[in-house]
């Protein structure tokens, strides 16, 4: 994976060499390109590396060199093809869908309200699991595009636990009115940043599966959020 960063404080070619050398020494980094003209740097790594680790490598918080996140770019995405790129999400949706249908096959008739609740439970439980595997990595990716997380960074950390709570609430059928209302609001806020990123054609990492998989932001992300909004909306309407 390759991330593009803003790096300030470089004033000469010596600064460039110094920053490049220090960043290249970080475990997991495979390639580093920096430019004092554009105050930027591209770092290729074989695993997710947090921003704090890079800052520490170039001298810490008090250093004249400061690094911040700009965008995400995965150059091999297009070459891999759509199916290969989104294989993890397709498998997850297929798995959750199959389990949902299996549960319904045990009933005398298909209960679409129950099916939606079980699907939403599976969705939130699985997706929150991947986010919690590397909460810091997820938060650093999520804050790059979510409208609320950009203003309140703590929301990026809290969001994974909100998803977990919604998954459990749907699983045990806890207060459907509150559960679906919260789902509708949370996912509606979430989709705003996704729409902005996709419409502006920003090449950033989708944080839907945390930092475990390197998935680009695309219409697939919009569909994920829209599906949860639609399901929770339908269930709310059916309650009145």
TrEMBL record:
Transmembrane segments annotated in the record for this chain: 84-103, 115-133, 154-172, 178-199, 211-237
Main location: membrane
Coiled-coil region(s): none
Gene3D superfamilies documented for this protein: 3.30.70.100
Gene Ontology molecular function: metal ion binding
Subcellular location: Membrane
GO cellular component: membrane
Any GO BP annotation: methylamine metabolic process
Transmembrane in keyword set: yes
InterPro entries: HMA_dom (IPR006121), HMA_dom_sf (IPR036163), Methylamine_util_MauE (IPR009908)
Residue span, HMA domain: 1-66
Protein name: Copper chaperone CopZ
The organism of origin for this protein: Flavobacterium caeni
């Amino acid at each position: 994976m390759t991330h593009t960063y803003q790096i300030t404080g470089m004033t000469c070619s010596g600064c460039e060499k110094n920053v490049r050398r220090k960043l290249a020494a970080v475990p997991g980094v495979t390639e580093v390109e920096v430019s004092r003209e554009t105050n930027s740097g591209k770092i290729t790594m074989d695993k997710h590396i947090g921003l704090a680790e890079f800052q520490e490598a170039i001298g810490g918080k008090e250093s004249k060199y400061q690094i911040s996140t700009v965008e995400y770019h995965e150059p091999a995405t297009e070459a891999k093809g759509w199916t290969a790129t989104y294989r993890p999400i397709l498998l997850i949706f297929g798995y959750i869908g199959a389990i949902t249908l299996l549960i319904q096959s045990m009933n005398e008739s298909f209960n679409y309200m129950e099916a939606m609740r079980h699907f939403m439970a599976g969705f939130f439980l699985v997706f929150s699991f991947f986010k919690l595997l590397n909460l810091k990595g997820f938060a650093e990716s999520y804050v790059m595009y979510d409208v609320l997380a950009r203003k309140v960074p703590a929301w990026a950390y809290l969001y994974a636990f909100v998803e977990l709570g919604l998954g459990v609430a749907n699983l045990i059928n806890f207060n459907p009115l509150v559960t679906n209302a919260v789902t509708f609001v949370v996912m509606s806020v979430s989709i705003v940043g996704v729409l902005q990123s996709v419409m502006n054609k920003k090449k950033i990492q989708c944080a839907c599966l945390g930092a475990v998989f390197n998935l680009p932001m695309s219409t697939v992300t919009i569909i994920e959020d829209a599906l949860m909004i639609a399901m929770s909306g339908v269930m709310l309407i059916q309650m009145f």
